[in-house]
Automatic annotation (TrEMBL), chain A:
Species of origin: freshwater metagenome
All copies of domain ABC transmembrane type-1, residue ranges: 93-378
InterPro entries tied to this protein: BPD_transp_1_N, MetI-like, MetI-like_sf
Membrane-spanning parts: 99-120, 132-153, 165-186, 198-220, 251-269, 309-336, 356-378
Membrane topology note: Multi-pass membrane protein
Cellular component per GO, a single term: plasma membrane
Main location (coarse class): membrane
Keywords, comma-separated and alphabetical: Cell membrane, Membrane, Transmembrane, Transmembrane helix, Transport
Gene Ontology BP terms: transmembrane transport
PROSITE patterns, sorted: ABC_TM1 (PS50928)
Location in or out of the cell: Cell membrane
Protein name stated in the entry: Unannotated protein
UniProtKB/TrEMBL annotation, chain B:
Cellular component annotations (GO), alphabetically ordered: ATP-binding cassette (ABC) transporter complex; periplasmic space
Species the sequence originates in: freshwater metagenome
Protein name (database record): Unannotated protein
GO biological process: peptide transport
Matching Gene3D superfamilies: Dipeptide-binding Protein, Domain 3 (3.10.105.10), Periplasmic binding protein-like II (3.40.190.10)
Lineage: unclassified sequences, metagenomes, ecological metagenomes
Length: 388, 586
């Protein structure tokens, strides 16, 4: 195992070096970093100044060396606004990491759960609805979905928070949800009779309505703060408050972007899990297990699911590396200063070579690292890999 | 079996708990609610604040100016009619005491202090002049000036955004313990009252760079000290270092109290402010760089004031926001058609005249601008805008489309209508290309309307879209007409570069020796009445030559959620926060 990791890492280093040279040359030829300075009152002096800062008068390989030697010491230089890039990069990585991590966890949990149930109950009502929903999510444009979320998940919900109450329709809807939930839980086994499912449903309805009644009493005559944000990751008015209020505010701002990203990945993961699970469920060893008299639960979770997980884990690891490069649209719509926005800024108007390089090199490292992680997990999960 | 049942019960309990939680999502938000009425007004900033020193070449940005308006002191400010008004908060008086040489005496209020308690005084004026007069250049370790090998230009020691005006000043003298400032010019500068705005605290630069007296260092030509001061002036004020209250001091109604990169800037009342207190306790700038998301944030009550670039979709979006107050005005940025005087066609006056007569300016405004700004009008002056008192309609014959006159003008010049309906002379068809930025649907429509109208007058117009006309088309000279916008300015001294012979912004190489003296006068004339007269004379000449044709002002939008008052549009580069101290919650 260790040998595999070391071997992979040794391959990664020259790959990154070649990549950095290639990217540096591309960025150097991608645009004119002096563009915005032309035609300004003191353009001559400003151009002279920036030329000196960016070493534009030096040959490209000397520039590369200057950049590379500084980068090795963790210094990414300054951008066209005269700001240091390092702190911007770390901050953007932190922000993106929060969102990507949360959304990946959410998407993986939901996607795998729904995918497994869909496969086990293939062609059931649940399977069809899950398929419909995931294709719907898959087909939705991100910016449109984000705006929908903002309108209903933020504006309408916040309006409701300002004057909360459940209302008759609310009781009915939530009650029905509760009924569906309990009857599904009770009736998951196909052997459960219809009557029992119905009883479970009615009990669920009654229980939920009862809880909601209590909650409604509690909510009456109260008013709450508009919790869900549509832009940024914090509300500056919370800056001087304690840890918990700030965390609450932060979560209220992360909710919508995380949901947006999660929904897109969820669609993929659930389809992927379903397919993988169907394949293993029809494998010979699963049939053997069933024939031996192993319980259905053990067949599904111990035999089929474990094997089905192998390709999913790899996909998740690779995906994580890719989204970490930034979800440009999501970040833009929610005004979040993550990796995607950093890259967009580097290319907007006049190209900002140092900024673009910082982004590209970090993204390259990232992709390499997550490829490595995917390989390692794959080897760990699948004993056949190691022996080859 | 038993365990399974218990397991199911547990799951049901969790399920119920989840549903219950869904009903009461907000349980803990009660404790986190900030005070309901704290007098905070939030503005949606389209770009991020990033430096306290807006005077550097890197730092010169509208986003910074918006935050700094109520923070840094200025001798004069632009009001909502683009007139320069003396700040009675900062000054007792500002007087032009002599016109030859031009001498201006500023008397600073005795109680004017920075938020760290140090007086606002003459030293701050001296720093503005020293940093921006362009006389100090960087020196290498061997003492020779650092230059750009391509242009041979010296790199300035203070990386200033502009030396305009300050380069005309010979000396800035102090008296009365630093409260009287006398600026003496060696070359007159008409827009003297636009100088000394957004002052940077000299005592901060001195303290942080370890220079005892910056004015003395300048007088003694102590380059080592000046280099240290310049180093701090150039790089010490950027926001990536965080908000240091000893650096980003305020001498305005508000001070910067917090900055969250990528998110927000918070201004709170300056406790040392000596003038009329601001009405709001705090002004917050939140970064929302996608303009289409600003109305949603307004609707979600996250921001109260937004100024995105308007378009019909955005206006429709705002109509759906209950209580929103929306206003659209024409600003200083204006669309215009510029002729290429190096082209064999457009260097001929009758061709330019005929084009001006078929250019459907009113139709362009009606169809493309009125839907966004119902009060939009055609601009008929190159030097003043309709909201200014000096504005005069000098368009004359070119005010309206006149196809018959366009034809007769061409025919009088020897052009003859060809069988294809296009005029020709000496084998040359009257076919002209309009260069414009692409993609830009509005400009594409403008060219379409123009082509349709001019076809009737026997002039063929060809659309020449390019993603960057300033780099790819204008320098090559391969065009007849350029369609683009100027970011205008109320400062008449700034007009020279556009119209004068060989001017840096005179892309079409227009030249008129009668015009040049007027343009010179615009930079030096100290009498406002004579200045307006010179601008008017210059405008009449530009119209007579049909050198460039203004079309319309870009619409600017100001919207509030209806809970604030005092937010007033300002067409100049000051921006919406020019009167932030008068913003208040209803």
């Amino acid at each position: 195992m260790l040998r595999l990791i070391i071997r992979r890492m040794l391959v990664a280093i020259p790959m990154l070096l070649v990549c950095s040279v290639l990217v540096f040359v591309l960025v150097a030829n991608a645009g004119d970093p002096l563009e915005a300075l032309r035609g300004r009152p003191n353009s001559q002096q400003a151009i002279a100044q920036r030329t000196a800062t960016l070493h534009l008068n030096k040959p490209i390989f000397e520039r590369y060396w200057l950049w590379f030697s500084k980068m090795l010491h963790g210094d990414f230089g300054i951008d066209n606004k005269g700001l240091r890039i390092g702190p911007q990069l770390w901050r953007a990585m932190g922000t993106t990491l929060q969102i990507v991590l949360l959304s990946t966890i959410l998407a993986v949990c939901l996607g795998i759960a729904v995918g497994v149930i869909s496969a086990v109950r293939q062609y059931s009502f649940f399977d069809y609805s899950a398929t419909f929903v995931s294709f719907l999510f898959y087909a939705m444009p991100v910016f449109w979905f984000a705006v929908l979320l903002k309108v209903f998940g933020a504006i309408e919900f916040n309006n409701w928070l300002e004057n909360p109450g459940i209302g008759t329709v609310g009781f009915l809807l939530i009650g029905l949800l509760g009924a569906g939930f309990t009857s599904m839980l009770f009736g998951f086994k196909r052997t459960v009779s219809k009557r029992r499912r119905l009883i479970a449903g009615i009990a669920g309805f009654a229980g939920t309505v009862l809880v909601c009644l209590l909650v409604d009493r509690f909510l009456a005559d109260r008013t709450y703060f508009r919790w869900i944000g549509t832009v940024n990751t914090t509300d500056p008015r919370f800056a001087h408050q304690g840890f918990w209020p700030r965390l609450g505010d932060h979560l209220g701002h992360l909710l919508l972007p995380v949901t947006t990203l999660a929904v897109i990945s969820y669609a993929g993961y659930s389809r992927f899990t379903r397919a993988s699970m169907l394949e293993t469920l029809s494998a010979d060893y699963v049939r053997t297990a069933r024939a031996k008299g192993v319980s259905e639960r053990a067949v599904i979770f111990k035999h089929a699911f474990r094997t089905a997980l192998i390709p999913i884990v790899t996909v998740v690891a690779l995906d994580f590396g890719a989204i970490f490069g930034g979800a440009i649209i999501t970040e833009t719509v929610f005004s979040i200063q993550g990796m995607g926005k950093l890259f967009r800024e580097a290319l907007q108007k006049d190209i900002d070579p140092n900024k673009a390089m910082a982004y590209l090199i970090v993204t390259a490292i990232n992709v390499v690292v997550f490829n490595l992680i995917a390989d390692i997990i794959y080897a760990k999960l699948d004993p056949r890999i190691r022996h080859e | 079996m038993r365990t399974t049942k218990r397991g199911k019960l547990a799951v049901i309990a969790v399920g119920l708990a989840l549903v219950a939680a869904a009903c009461s999502d907000s349980k803990d938000t009660k404790t986190t609610a900030p005070p309901a009425k704290g007098g905070t007004i939030t503005y949606a900033a389209e770009q991020e604040f990033y430096t306290y020193n807006n005077g550097t070449s890197d730092g010169n940005a509208f986003a910074n100016a918006l935050v700094l308006n109520p923070v840094q002191p200025s001798t004069f400010y632009f009001d909502d009619k683009a007139a320069l008004v003396m700040s009675t908060d900062l000054l007792d008086s500002a007087e032009l005491t002599s016109t030859s040489p031009e001498t201006v005496v500023y008397k600073i209020k005795a109680d004017a202090v920075w938020s760290d308690g140090v007086a606002v005084d003459c030293k701050d004026f001296q720093l503005a002049w020293i940093s921006s007069n362009g006389t100090l250049t960087q020196q290498g370790s061997d003492g020779t000036p650092v230059t750009d090998p391509d242009s041979g230009t010296s790199v300035l020691l203070f990386n200033t955004a502009s030396t305009t005006g300050y380069e005309n000043i010979k000396s800035v003298e102090c008296a009365d313990g630093g409260k009287t400032v006398t600026a003496t010019y060696d070359k007159n500068f008409s827009d003297w009252n636009a100088l000394f705005s957004g002052l940077i605290p000299a005592h901060v630069v001195e303290a942080k760079s370890g220079v005892a007296d910056i004015a003395k260092a300048y007088a003694d030509k102590n380059m080592a000290d000046l280099a240290k001061a310049a180093e701090f002036w150039n790089t010490g004020f950027t926001a990536d270092k965080g908000i240091d209250p000893t650096v980003m001091v305020s001498a305005g109604p508000f001070m910067i109290t917090s900055f969250t990169p990528g998110e927000s800037v918070v201004l709170e009342k300056n406790p040392k402010w000596w003038g009329t207190p601001a009405l709001a306790d705090s002004i917050v700038f939140r970064l929302i760089d996608d303009a289409t998301q600003q109305p949603i944030a307004l609707q979600n009550k996250e921001v109260q004031v937004i100024t995105p670039q308007p378009n019909p979709d955005l206006l429709a979006q705002l109509e759906g926001v209950s209580g929103a107050e929306v206003k659209v005005d024409g600003g200083y940025t204006y669309e215009h058609m510029d002729f290429n005087f190096a082209s064999p066609l457009t260097k001929q006056l009758p061709v330019r005249q005929a084009f001006a007569l078929c250019l459907p300016r009113q139709e362009i405004v009606d169809k493309l601008i009125i839907p966004v700004n119902p009060s939009a009008v055609v601009v008929n002056n190159h030097f003043y805008f309709p909201f200014q008192s000096e504005y005069v309609d000098n368009a004359g014959d070119y005010a309206k489309v006149d196809i018959a006159k366009a034809k007769s003008t061409l025919e009088a010049d020897g052009w003859a209508l060809g069988s294809d309906g296009i005029y020709a002379k000496g084998g040359t068809r009257l076919s002209m290309k309009i260069a414009r930025k692409d993609p830009n649907p509005r400009r594409a429509s403008e060219v379409q309307l123009t082509a349709a109208s001019c076809k009737e007058a026997g002039i063929e117009i060809i659309d020449q879209p390019n993603e960057d006309i300033f780099s790819n088309i204008l320098p090559t000279g391969q065009y007849e007409i350029a369609l683009f916008a100027w970011v205008g300015s109320p400062l008449q001294s700034s007009q020279k570069a556009i119209f004068t012979t060989g001017g840096s912004s005179n892309f079409g190489q227009y030249t008129n020796t009668k015009l040049d003296p007027y343009l010179d006068q615009l930079t030096t004339e100290l009498d406002p009445a004579k200045l307006a007269a010179a601008a008017d004379a210059a405008d009449k000449l530009v119209w007579a030559d049909v050198a460039t044709i203004p079309i319309f002002q870009f619409p600017d939008l100001t919207a509030t959620d209806g809970t604030v008052t005092g937010v007033i549009y300002n067409p100049t580069q000051a921006g919406i926060t020019w009167n932030a101290q008068l913003w208040s919650l209803k």
